[in-house]
């Protein structure tokens, strides 16, 4: 991520948390990772104005106390939190979940790949997308595309699908 802000991960499964941490490390994404176990903890963190606003939220859907959809509806109805991009990172392939997430303002929906290499590729694509995407608060930043080998990236993403 080009932002120095933290990345928030809302995930209750300890094994998935470790996989995500490993993927971020392998991709050399050095943003602080703020991990919450459920949507309720995520809302509490975001409502505490002493905490930095994350540049991105990875959100699981199936969690205790407050699930991902409930969390999403709360933050997307808050003008201060609405601009934060939220990407579902979940095992749910349910079309109703997908539709409900996009209706509630989610930025992306990724079904967690079982294979670690595919998982890393998915996280890398999210990272590259947000690195290239202009955010309202950062619109004055000038992204230097010279450091990204787009031909190599295309080859890795579209032709090397192992």
How many individual helices? 6
Low-confidence stretches: 138-146
What fraction, in percent, of the residue positions are helical?
40-55%
Q: What is the average per-residue confidence, as pLDDT, rounded to a whole number? A: 80
Give the number of DSSP strands: 5
Shape: globular
| Gap from first CA to last CA | 24 Å
Q: What Rg is obtained from the alpha carbons, in whole angstroms?
A: 16 Å
Oligomer class: single chain
Model description:
This protein has 162 residues and is an alpha/beta fold. It has one domain: 3-Layer(aba) Sandwich (Rossmann fold), CATH 3.40.50. It has helices spanning 14-26, 39-47, 68-76, 95-103, 116-132, 150-159; strands spanning 7-10, 33-36, 56-59, 86-90, 108-111. Strands 2-1-3-4-5 form a five-stranded parallel beta sheet. Helix 1 links the parallel strand 1 (7-10) and strand 2 (33-36). The radius of gyration is 16 Å and the shape is globular. Mean pLDDT is 80; it is low at 138-146.
Characteristic terms for this protein:
single chain, 162 residues, alpha/beta, Rossmann fold, 5-stranded parallel β-sheet, globular
Secondary structure layout plus pairing:
Elements: E1 7-10, H1 14-26, E2 33-36, H2 39-47, E3 56-59, H3 68-76, E4 86-90, H4 95-103, E5 108-111, H5 116-132, H6 150-159
Parallel strand pairs: 1-2, 1-3, 3-4, 4-5
């Amino acid at each position: 991520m080009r932002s120095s802000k933290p990345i928030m991960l809302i995930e209750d499964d300890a094994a998935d948390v470790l996989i995500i941490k490993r993927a971020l490390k392998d991709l050399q994404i050095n943003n602080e990772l703020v991990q919450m176990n459920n949507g309720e903890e995520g809302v509490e963190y975001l409502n505490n104005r002493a905490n930095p606003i994350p540049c991105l939220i990875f959100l699981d859907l199936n969690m205790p106390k407050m699930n991902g959809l409930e969390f999403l509806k709360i933050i997307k109805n808050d003008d201060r939190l609405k601009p934060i991009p939220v990407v579902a990172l979940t095992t749910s392939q349910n079309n109703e979940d997908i539709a409900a997430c996009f209706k509630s303002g989610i930025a992306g929906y990724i079904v967690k790949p079982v294979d670690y290499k595919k998982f890393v590729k998915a996280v890398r694509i999210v990272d590259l997308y947000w690195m290239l995407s202009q955010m309202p608060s950062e619109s004055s930043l000038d992204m230097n595309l010279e450091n990204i080998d787009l031909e190599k990236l295309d080859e890795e993403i579209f032709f090397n699908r192992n």
